[in-house]
Model the fold of this input.
Amino acid sequence: MITIFHSLSFVNAALLVMQIYSGMTGWGNHQLMGLGVSLYGCLLHSLVITYFIGTGRSIKDAVENDGLHQDFYNRSRDWYRSKTYPLTGLCICCFISTAIIGAWSDSYREYPDSLGRVLHPVVGWITVMINTLIYFGQRDRILANSALILEANEVLHDADRKNDAPKLVAPSQLKEKIPLGFWIGRWLIYGGVAVWLPFITLRYIVEKQYSHLGIEGFLVAYIVLTAVGLFLTRVVFHPQKWVVLEESGS
Done:
């Protein structure tokens, strides 16, 4: 989940920067781009909320049906007790409010001092700040929840393990041991996916002089970045080569 979250957050940040630039310079179709950014932001934060609902439900079922200790369920509820949970809901509301106020202000574009045209940038900047703030909280909670799930799975399967079987340490617990090349490979893959963002924006949103923009360069960049990223993460720095093994019982 953390890889998906980082990928979606990277695109979200790029979209927000693009939208800010559009609003300040008049570049592109600001209204259409704003609608897309708002929908994407709501999708991202809704996905985060759904993730915690689903994993919490799974742990609750394991406690009720498989004998998992109640403490695991209590720890899975930390997300709801954190400040990140209400801020995530607030961020969704801010995205929606920014789009609505933007549409309202657009109908008064000939009146630059109208209330809507003053509120829209204010609410927009608040949305950007909240997005930046909760990214770190969401990341930390997802990492903690992933480690909790790995721990719960280990407890549930502990009876089926042999006493001399090695125990794989979760990558989230080895952040300082992960090679730099592995992270570079990951970000190259993210970059390969993000290559399509400027193409879609220029070709289908900005249009005008970019209506005949070719796909060949973007396709080559996508293939190269993704191929190099996969080579680094799956071959050169494959987790099997650096993940630490602990002896059982240690």
